[in-house]
Design a protein that fits this description.
This protein has eleven helices and 16 strands. It is an alpha/beta fold.
Length: about 325
């Protein structure tokens, strides 16, 4: 079968012919219909992600596919079931083996490309805004990188929770995408001062930051007292130092959040969050945005779209 393989961290991943996998204990084999890309895939290709396997391995953290074989001790999900799964890697391939316990049946009305990019982005925003930041109706949520894979879901979920949402993104086109997801106020980070613009709107009660760098520093200065600042990632490539004097004086809480970690220490919280999100999708409350769907042969180009920040929402590869 074909797979987008990381052979070493010194070389770019390439599409290679590799042996088809076999489902072992606690695993299922999927024919993969679609794989959602994440910024973490870029880090994993370079060996800088916190959960990077030892090469060689196949990139692709989350997939949608059909169960075609069960491991020796597996009874569910049944063969023929279409499922979504966060496997951490192995998704950019024609087939893959994944833990049966992590597979979630996909509703018939959810397309495979949507299901493949749903779990990480929506799961991240929902769990951190509800459980960790405890966003309240009427509060102001500031979303950095608001047109990106996770940022756009934060806009949508924040609005669904009753917050006033300020979206920060680069350029009019990306801001238009954030507005369509429900943003109340728009800030163009290429032309506007984030701190001044947010302060003019009354300041931020919760900051959602997948960007880091200067944007983090600007948002922190625009926080209201007792604000919560959520650290999701560092798409800018700059991990900022946190000025403790600011968080002290304003009684600000800085919250670190890694969605995949819940698989190890609290999978129930993650499962409950995803169940609620699936219900919201069924009710028509969520409208996932996919800017690009590309074939496996163009997986490298798909990753470049994220690296260059030319995509909005999710980028999906269909093997």
């Amino acid at each position: 079968m074909r797979a987008f393989l990381v052979s070493s961290f010194d070389n770019a991943p390439t599409v290679e012919n590799v042996p088809a996998p076999i489902a072992k204990n606690d695993e299922v084999l999927l024919d993969i219909a679609a794989c959602g890309l994440n910024f973490a895939d870029l880090l994993m290709a370079k060996g800088t992600y916190q959960d990077t396997p030892v090469p060689p391995f196949t990139l692709g953290m989350e997939v949608c596919g059909t169960v075609t074989a069960l491991g020796p001790n597996v009874t569910t999900p049944a063969i023929g079931t279409r499922v979504a799964v966060f496997g951490g890697n192995g998704g950019l391939a024609e087939q893959g083996v994944f833990p049966a316990a992590l597979c979630r049946p996909v509703p018939d009305d959810m397309p495979s490309d949507v299901a493949a990019g749903f779990m990480v982005a929506y799961g991240t925003s929902h769990l951190v805004l509800t459980r960790r930041a405890q966003l309240q109706k009427g509060e102001t949520l500031l979303v950095l990188g608001a047109a990106g894979g996770v940022g756009l879901t934060a806009v949508e979920i924040g609005k669904a929770m009753g917050a006033t949402v300020i979206a920060v993104a680069r350029g009019a086109d990306k801001l238009a995408v954030a507005k369509s997801a429900g943003a109340d106020h728009l800030i163009d980070s290429t032309t506007e001062d984030i701190t001044e613009a947010v302060r003019a709107l009354g300041g931020a009660d919760v900051v959602y930051d997948p960007v880091g760098g200067d944007a983090f520093k600007a948002a922190l200065r625009a926080c209201n007292r007792e604000a919560r600042v959520i650290v999701i990632g560092f798409a800018s490539g700059d991990v900022p130092a946190i000025p403790a004097n600011i968080i002290l004086v304003k009684n600000i809480t800085v919250i670190g959040f890694y969605w995949g970690g819940y698989l190890r220490f609290n999978p129930t919280a993650l499962a409950d969050s995803l169940d609620e999100l699936m219900a919201w999708y069924a009710q028509g409350r969520l409208r996932p945005h996919i800017s690009h769907v590309m074939p496996l042969k163009d997986a490298a180009k798909a990753l470049e779209l994220m690296r260059n920040r030319t995509s909005t929402g999710k980028v999906v590869v269909t093997p």
